[in-house]
Amino acid sequence: MPEPTFATPRAAYDRLLEGNERFVSDVPEHPNQDASRRRALASAQAPFATLFGCADSRVAAEMIFDVGLGEMFVVRTAGQVTDGVTIGSLEYGVEVLGTPLLIVLGHDSCGAVTAAVDSFATGDTPGGFIADVVAQLLPSVVRARGNGIDDVNGTVEQNTIDTVDLLYNRSRILRDAVDSGRLVMLGMTYHLGDGRVKVVAQTPADVPAAPAP
Q1: What is the CA radius of gyration of the chain?
Q2: What is the DSSP string of 66-104?
Q3: What is the mean pLDDT of each run of 10 residues along the chain (213 residues)?
Q4: What is the pTM of this model?
Q5: For Zn(2+), which residues are the binding ones (predicted)?
Q6: How many C-beta neighbours within 10 Å does residue 137 have?
Q7: Which residues are annotated as a binding site for Zn(2+)?
Q8: Which of 30, 132, 186, 189 is the most buried (most CB within 10 A)?
Q9: Of the candidates 203, 200, 202, 212, which has an alpha carbon nearest to the alpha carbon of residue 177?
């Protein structure tokens, strides 16, 4: 198996932040996206970060952080809504692939969060299984309201923070990795307009993986 390029949370974070800065500045390198890289990864992978993001088509994690094939293990659902399969996938990235950094990435103008905020305000529920997405986001809407936040982007930030807490509390594998010092979990938000990311949560808070939120 290839060796992870960045074996510590701080090194992984710095690599992602450098890539995001290139993306923002419109000078991406598009690293590790050629045929030789593809062939080298045919039998194994060793990503340096796991990322749980929104399924929104505008939030393609590999582009936002300017990484290539085999560098990031990505799981995406609408509004970063979790279920057992999602959490199991994130556990795989951390426990089996050994990534030292797990990022939860929310973004402004999120359609799923907007639907949940609207549902809370009107009492109306969307049809189909979209209702399940909204139902899982409503606790973050309620918590945001309790903190005096009623706008979508503020609720996105609350949901990102809540998701980091949920993953730590629900997953024994992720919690053990954090508690043993093998993993840092970051909550980040992405701004669609300028492409920048911002740290809004970190677990554990006392490990220098990123600047304080």
Answers
A1: 17
A2: T--TTSEEEEEEGGG---HHHHHHHHIIIIIS--SEEEE
A3: 66 95 95 87 92 97 95 97 97 97 98 98 95 97 97 98 98 97 96 97 77 53
A4: 0.92
A5: 54, 56, 107, 110
A6: 29
A7: 54, 56, 107, 110
A8: 186
A9: 203
Tokens 């740290």 correspond to 199
Give CA–CA dist 43/193, Å, rounded.
Answer: 38
Residue type, 157: E
Annotated binding site: 54, 56, 107, 110
The whole-angstrom separation of Cα 124 and Cα 23 is 39
Chain position carrying tokens 């809370």: 120
Full strand arrangement of the beta sheet holding 197-203: 72-77, 49-54, 101-107, 184-190, 197-203
Q: Does domain 9-111+174-203 have CATH number 3.10.310.70?
A: no
Compute the distance between CA of residue 147 and CA of residue 143 in angstroms, rounded to an integer. Answer: 6
State residue 1's pLDDT score: 45
